[in-house]
Write a structure and sequence with these properties.
Elements (H helix, E strand, L loop, with lengths): L2 H19 L3 E3 L5 E2 L6 E7 L4 E8 L8 E4 L1 E2 L6 E5 L9 E9 L5 E3 L3 E5 L10 H7 L2 E5 L16 E5 L5 E3 L1 H8 L12 H9 L2 E2 L2 E2 L5 H25 L15 H5 L14 H7 L16
Parallel strand pairs: 2-10, 11-12
Antiparallel strand pairs: 1-3, 3-7, 4-5, 4-8, 5-11, 6-7, 8-9, 8-10, 12-13, 14-15
Helix pairs in contact: 4-5
Length: 297
């Protein structure tokens, strides 16, 4: 091999190594909002030779969970196109901060400016299908801290099947699986035991008389008031999760006087200031399924 050819090959190899170690460039159109009903698809074009492209994210306001990530997948037809499915935020996640970061084998990293996406019910997200739907049902959650929990704060577990520890070990996400399988997991179906509520209310006093001794119209009105407050308590779980508050409507057990008292139990004092707005902004529930059960007269 001539010296000229050898120098040319060395020069080309140097250019290739320089290209592979240079920091990639990322082009991304930020999402204006996220929906609490479905996964959001993050899309970016990444030029260069990235060894990994990830979306790092966390909900604004949480201080104990830290930052998580999901890996972005390269498109088979367009090697510069990368996509990832975000976990679904819960209704109490008012704003989600996310950032796309790309890294090369040489250790060079580039990132877009952090994006603050609001979570709101009127956010329009295209329906998922095909590969996107499959990706949303098999999310691998990346942890960034050794003691981090695999259930991300203010995000649903729906679709999160595995997680990667901060040390890089992949594990099945048993915590999310158990949470989704729990009968206490909030759903769109609210179930209450009307006969039990009627029995509790009938033992109370209203207008200086036991409720059971009131005329039927007044007795039914008292039972309806108690039923409404129990349903309001369950709606609180549907909106804000399984936890309880030390006072007000979301106490672990509603006091008997709160069932039919003239003043309804207040919203918990430790709820966020946006709770009332979220209660008003949530889309209407599906049509209720009414199961009629006889109530002792």
């Amino acid at each position: 091999m001539s010296r000229g050819v050898a120098l040319s090959l060395a020069f080309l190899a140097g250019l290739q190594l320089q290209s592979m170690s240079a920091a990639p460039t990322i082009t991304h159109t930020p999402l204006a909002c996220l929906s609490a009903e479905t996964n959001a698809k993050i899309t970016a074009h990444v030029e260069g030779q990235p060894s990994s492209v990830r979306v790092y994210f966390h909900a604004i306001g949480q201080t104990s969970c830290g930052e998580y990530y999901v890996d972005m997948r390269r498109n088979d037809k367009d090697p510069t196109l990368y996509t990832a499915m975000m976990p679904i935020p819960t209704p109490d996640a008012d704003v989600v901060m996310y950032q796309i970061r790309a890294k090369t084998n040489g250790g060079n990293e580039t990132a877009i400016a952090p994006v603050a996406a609001t979570v709101r019910k009127e956010c329009t997200i295209p329906a998922l299908a095909g590969a996107d739907l499959q990706a949303a049902q098999s999310i691998v959650l990346g942890l960034t801290q050794p003691s981090q929990k695999p259930v991300p704060c203010r995000f649903r577990c729906n679709g999160i099947t595995n997680y990667v520890t901060a040390a890089g070990e992949m594990k099945p996400n048993e915590e999310c699986r158990l949470l989704l399988a729990s009968p206490e997991q909030p759903t769109r179906l609210i179930e209450v035991a009307l006969p039990e509520i009627a029995a509790q209310v009938s033992g109370q006093r209203l207008l200086d008389r036991p409720v059971r001794d009131l005329p039927k119209l007044a007795r039914d009105a008292a039972i309806g008031r108690g039923l409404g407050r129990v349903v309001a308590h369950e709606i609180g779980h549907w909106l804000f999760g399984r936890g309880h508050a030390p006072d007000g409507l979301m106490r672990a057990s509603i006091r008997r006087g709160d069932l039919i008292g003239a003043q309804p139990p207040p919203l918990p004092s430790d709820w966020p200031s946006t709770a009332r707005a979220r209660l008003q902004a949530r889309r209407p529930c599906p049509a209720p399924r009414i199961v009629r059960q006889p109530v002792a007269s």
